[in-house]
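Dissemination and training. As part of the outreach component of the grant, students in the summer workshop were shown how a complex can be specified as a set of sequence lines and then modelled as a single object. The example used during the hands-on session is reproduced here so that future cohorts can follow it. Participants entered these lines:
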Amino acid sequence: AQSVSQHNHHVILSEAASLELGCNYSYGGTVNLFWYVQYPGQHLQLLLKYFSGDPLVKGIKGFEAEFIKSKFSFNLRKPSVQWSDTAEYFCAVNGNNAGNMLTFGGGTRLMVKP
Amino acid sequence: GAGVSQSPSNKVTEKGKDVELRCDPISGHTALYWYRQSLGQGLEFLIYFQGNSAPDKSGLPSDRFSAERTGGSVSTLTIQRTQQEDSAVYLCASSLSVGQGQNEQFFGPGTRLTVL
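and obtained this result:
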């Protein structure tokens, strides 16, 4: 079985602060990893994804995430947040032998103060 | 439209009634997924379709839940004899195929179900 843990449930930052949201997963095989974002009143959108290759992946809106296999982690980062980044962020994993289901973490609510 | 669409956007029903939720995937996407988002449980996988068949129904919470897909396109999720704990946002997603989990899933806006 696969599982995902996001340790930060709520994060409050001021504009221009740096962001790092933690994500750890549990799965015994090869994984595909995703970060989705849900802006207020909008539906889930993909920020970035990791399938293979370079463990540092770049996504939209200046976000990036690093896959560290030895730590089973896929933390999301952004050097300088904006008020418009206020949203809920979900880490998700899909194991290559786990069908096509995504298992999501509990989400992190980010509030950026102007 | 270009994205996944779901209807209705909101549904309020009385306990014990049946409800049907509809999903229109992105044109050409062969894989379709249903998830549920609720306060207590977060985002949970329910079921997915490859074409019209559902290889894995283990995520459905109870036998009151069923889903079907016809013509490789539209899908309906049916909840019979609704209970208050069924209140949640039901999300549909689609992807081009089910190629070893590597296909990005595009999500619809969801149906907010409230069971009184």
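The mean pLDDT of chain A is 92. Students were then asked to discuss how this feature might be tested experimentally.
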